[in-house]
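Researcher: Can you fold this with uracil in place?
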Amino acid sequence: MMRLDKMLAHLGYGSRKEVKEYIRKGYVLVNGEVITNDDFKVDEINDEVVIAQEVVNYETNIYIMLNKPDGYISSTYDNNDPIVLDLIDGYEKRGLFPVGRLDKDTVGLLLITNDGKLAHKLLAPKSHVDKKYYLKYSGTLPNDYEKRFFEGIILDDGYKCMSAKLIDLGNNEAYIIIKEGKYHQVKRMLEAIGANVTYLKRVEFGPIKLDNTLKEGQYRFLTEDEINELKSL
Ligand code: URA
């Protein structure tokens, strides 16, 4: 058994003060009854708690898509810079972490979850999940760039990338689809053919497309369909 306000705050529905307010205002039901005293004791496993019409599940995994802004670190901790989790309300209580990394200056689609099993599966090198990026570059692409991306770009450290696809859009803009996630991979792939990435935005991760209604810094929860698509990869 646990205090209702403590449980809701713990699950990230707000600070202790905020959830007490929700309870007093009558937004919270336990087993169908409005409960207005915040020290009400709930059985986290067997009681049905509803807040603002959403059923609260103590064990629920959370799946979020964030449109990552420039300047944020894809990590759960950093000494100097803001981290992507700073953008997610109540994250610290829910064990969230980003699924892989985008560079500090890369923007766009970043999945955030507390489902370690799924994240592990998505990030495993043998999973080969397609990642699609939109990019701007300086310099000129060599004539044989398509073939070189297809056959596998050799990076500065001698690593041969898996087959990738670069779609030049003209005007020094392109899409690139890669199946790996090595450190600075896209930037280094472009460098290897004599160009420089000046802007990088991830637009797809496997079956998940960045929701273009999300402004940079905004996030939303994945839909059931999106979660199922990820799980069935
Ligand atoms: N490739 C990069 O170079 N940077 C990223 O953030 C992601 C892919």
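Model: Folded with uracil in place. The chain has three domains: 2-55, 63-125+207-231, 130-205.
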